[in-house]
Amino acid sequence: MAYGNMGKVLEIDLATGEAVEFEPPQETYRDFIGGAGLAAKLLFERGDLAAEPLDPGNLLIFAAGPLTGIGFSGSSRLSVGARSPLTGIWGQASCGGNFGPEMKRCGYDAVVFRGRAEKPVYVLLTEGKAEVLQAEDLWGRDAYETTDLLKEKHGKQCKVLAVGPASENGVLYGSILNDKAHIFGRAGMGTVMASKNLKAFAAQGEMKMELADPDKVKEMGEWFREEVKGNVFCGALSAFGTGANLEAKMYEGDVPTRNWGQGLWEEGAEKLSGIALADNFVIDHGSCRGCAVRCKPVVEVKEGPYAMPPGAGPEYETQASFGTMLLNPELAAVCKANDICNRLGMDTITCGATIAWAMDCFEQGVLKPEECEGVELKWGDIDTVLELLPRIARREGKLGELLALGSRRASGEVGGGSEAFLTDSKGLEAPMHDPRCNWGDGAAYAISVRGACHVSNTTFLLEWGAVEYPEIGLDKNYQPQSAQWKGEAAALTADIGCIFNSACWCEFPGTIFTLTRLAELFDAVAGYGWDVQKMMEAGARVWYLQRCLSHIWGATAEDDSIGRKIMTPVEDGGIAGSVPDMRTMLNEIYELRGLSEDGRPRREVLERYGLTDVADRLYG
């Protein structure tokens, strides 16, 4: 009996239209949890590891976790994994919404796509059945229009994942839209999906999963609902979205400004905050399935040059990437940029950060006017940015083609010292939290399995004081601009991040759970029989596997670093003169993790976690 999971995976060969289901061993679920862990396990075992990211042989895997669909706030997430076209290494993204629970209601924990369809198609998943249907009439349409048309055809209750024209055209950071309101944004998973001529993935089902201890799950659910109601963090998210603390964090020095080159921007703090968004543009709040937090702003810009109809509003990352990063104080324009990127299917973090990199290069004379085809890339000129977005999505002209590559690859094309303005790790642009403010973020970005990322770990929450984990010794007095204990913190919170992304559990309401309570929830839902130690071992096992995949694809110790612009001190604000001590933190991580000088986990470490087959592949 597969408790908490449906016990089946569906593999679809898009080249032939053939669909085959299989049942992974129960120990696969227990050892790799589900979600991003299950996706990595399936890719390692069933994929062509020699395939390039946009080759037909690169598997694209959507995977739910055991906590997906249990009805708790934060339990609706879904992960997707593949080799990333942006970074060339392990890529993953996740989002909430409705699709994860719906996929399980169709009877599957994961759906694996291999091959490439001859012509554009979409897949309709129902209970125990998948149909590969023609989508030539959808190709070229934006993600919102595609979603509307499929819901019109199959019913409003049908859940839809769709890619936009940017992914179709090979922009390396294409996203996947989930019912027009939730985004698989990072690492170019939309681009992989479109490279398979897969325009959309729709699902509708009513199957139910079995729980190991339904009474215990019900009891914990009632406790959790009351906790969410009284939680200050969740309350702020409900009122002001994920940008709730942008203003306060700007004064601390946590919000990157002017491509990480400025430590304080008071105008941006006031005009781009979650409070400003709520006061001026929010007309409603959306939520993921079963979530009482409702942190998703629905916005409308009623008039003016940035007018847009009601739709998904910007989250904190976009308020920064198209606001503070560009010195743009126009929040209406940020809403508009978010809407355009969503419709076209582009990750707002990489897109905004790449444009900010280009503005830096232009200001410093590294990027010449002739290379920009007459476009002047100036700080604060959001109108030019909005005009650029469709050109990037079409890869139109020299500038559109360049910016479609993401900042690191674009820097490789431009040369001329442009690498001094990069803000990535492993080719993935950093999220909008500054490691010069909280040094542990630097270590977390550097060792993140997919490149710079704050949701592949919980380091930022630990440093903020939003969580502590006394069960594993993470309850120390962490000073923001200090390396003390930060290597340990980054290593262990990476395991927690792997648990969350594999369980498909949201970090926001997840702050309420202690590790002890979380292990109890796993046992009640899935019957894994974990205590905290066994749960942490599963998270570490997932981290090692995903890291090893990246080593197989060429990653080395040199990639455990963060962009030079982030490592350059600024003169103002709460981070004036601060640069994280990366060497001290990384030395601590390498020792704790058992990593060799070239960055690879030592064979004996992998064998300790039951990854002998991975060690054999890595070491021969």
How is the largest sheet built, in terms of strand order?
2-1-6-3-4-5
Rg on CA atoms, Å = 22 Å
Low-confidence stretches: none
Beta-strand residue fraction:
5-15%
Structural class: alpha+beta
Count up the helices.
26
How far is the first residue's CA from the last residue's CA?
37 Å
CATH architecture of the largest domain: Orthogonal Bundle
Strand runs, count: 17
> What is CATH's topology name of the largest domain?
Aldehyde Ferredoxin Oxidoreductase Protein, subunit A, domain 2
The named CATH superfamily of the largest domain? Aldehyde Ferredoxin Oxidoreductase Protein, subunit A, domain 2
Largest sheet: 6 strands, mixed
Task: Name the shape in a single word.
Answer: globular
How much helicity do the residues have?
A: 40-55%
Domain tally: 3
Q: Can you identify the CATH class of the largest domain?
A: Mainly Alpha
Would you write up a description of this structure?
The chain has 620 residues and is of the alpha+beta class. The chain folds into three domains: 9-203, Aldehyde ferredoxin oxidoreductase, N-terminal domain (Aldehyde Ferredoxin Oxidoreductase,  A, domain 1); 217-425, Aldehyde Ferredoxin Oxidoreductase Protein, subunit A, domain 2 (Orthogonal Bundle), CATH 1.10.569.10; 436-561 and 581-619, Aldehyde Ferredoxin Oxidoreductase Protein, subunit A, domain 3, CATH 1.10.599. The chain is 41% helix and 13% strand. The strands form four sheets. A six-stranded mixed sheet has the order 2-1-6-3-4-5. The protein has a six-stranded mixed sheet with strand order 8-7-12-9-10-11. The chain has a three-stranded antiparallel sheet with strand order 13-14-15. A hairpin with a 4-residue loop joins β1 and β2. α18 (439-447) crosses α20 and α20 crosses α23 (532-552). The longest helix has 21 residues, at 532-552. It is globular, with a radius of gyration of 22 Å. 60% of the residues are buried. The model has no long low-confidence stretch (mean pLDDT 97).
